[in-house]
Every structure is written in C-alpha cells, then in structure tokens.
Amino acid sequence: MRLRVADPRGPSRGCTACCCRSGVYVSLAERERILAHAAAVQRCMDAGQVRDPAQWFERRVYRDPDFEGGRCVGTRVMGAACVFLNGRGLCTLQLASARSGTPQLKPFYCRIFPLTLAGGVVVYHPFCRGRAPCCTFGRRGAALALEACRPEFEEVLGAGGYRALVELARRRPGNREYRDREAPRTRPVELR
Question: CA dihedral in degrees (182, 187, 191, 192; nearest 10)?
C-alpha cells in the first residue's frame, strides 16, 4: 500500500487540513493539559478563532478504551473546522508547544494521523480512503505507507515496535514492496 504524501514536514505544501475539519477527540488528561496552558494557546490564535477556553471542548464525555483513562471529549467545531485550526491551516496547539516550550499539547490522535486506534488495534484512518487528498492511500502513491508514516507508527508502537512491524511486512508472503528492502535504521521519535 502506498500513500500520496503532501509533504512529510507538515501542512505547508499540499495539505488541506481536512483531517482537522471535524475536530478530534482527546483524553480528559489532554483536555486538562490544554486548558492549563490556555494563555499560550490563545497567543497563537488568529483574530477569528474562539479564544474563550470554555468554548473549546464539547460538554459530553464519552467512554472509550482507546483513550488514556478510558474517557474522551471532543474539540468543538467552529466555522467548519476544529476550534484549534487557524486560518493558515495550522494547529494552534502545536504552535503553542513549539513557541512557548509547554508540554506537548497537540492531541495524541492528531499526532498519529493518518493512523488511529480502533479497539486497541492500529489502523489507517477512514479519511485515507479518498476523502483527504493529501493523505490518500492507493497503489500509485508517492511513498510506501509504512515508511511514510514511520513517525506516527513510532509514536504508537515505539521504535522497537516499528522495527518489528517492518520485519513482519518483509516476511509477509507476496509483499514484494518490502521483501528485498533493508530494515530501516532507528531514529529518535519526533513529536509534532
């Protein structure tokens, strides 16, 4: 399987931020971390973004074992996008972490996109089935999905888990894409 990759360095080239249009679910711990750093987040927001932290998250809490603590809450959608997506298509949570040195504020599920967890299993997000032009899987993509999503796999599985996954792909009968490839070298996981 191959992935049409906009740019592995971020949304500056070709990314349409469609994955950010419907918001994201976050663990309650992530929500509290974001709210604890509300001032840093607000400094990174555009004039048109909702700056009131009381308006950033939905009120309903859901049970979901795929989230830390087994519960989650959704970010609000304002103006057809996640409340944290600015007018340039950038995540203000990611910007706040980078600019102010705060702990990682970008939610786990955003950091691992185009992957997601479903019942404890790592799968490709449904958006990758043709809905997101920058992250659509197909036979003629620019890069092998397993390689293109390396940082995301390592975020979920760790470097050792990623190496084991690549080794499984290499051993899989009929998988010509990996059979003759060298195993990838390990590098530190870059948190986005």
Answer: -60
pLDDT in tens, 61-106: 999 999 999 999 999 999 889 999 998 888 999 999 999 887 899 9
Domain count of the fold of the chain: 2
> Where a domain ends, among 64, 85, 106?
106
Sheet holding 143-144, edge to edge: 137-138, 2-3, 143-144
Quickly tell me which residue has 């197909």 as its tokens. Answer: 138
Given CA atoms 159, 161, 162, 164 in this order, what sign does their dihedral have?
positive
Residue 165's alpha-carbon distances to 78, 125, 150, 162, 173, in angstroms, are 38, 18, 10, 5, 14
**Residue 38 identity:** A
Domain span holding position 177: 1-8+113-186
Q: Compute the distance between CA of residue 25 and CA of residue 30 in angstroms, rounded to an integer.
A: 10
Distance CA 94, CA 110 (A): 10
Q: Reduce the DSSP state of residue 93 to 3 states and report it.
A: helix
Residues written for the chain: 192
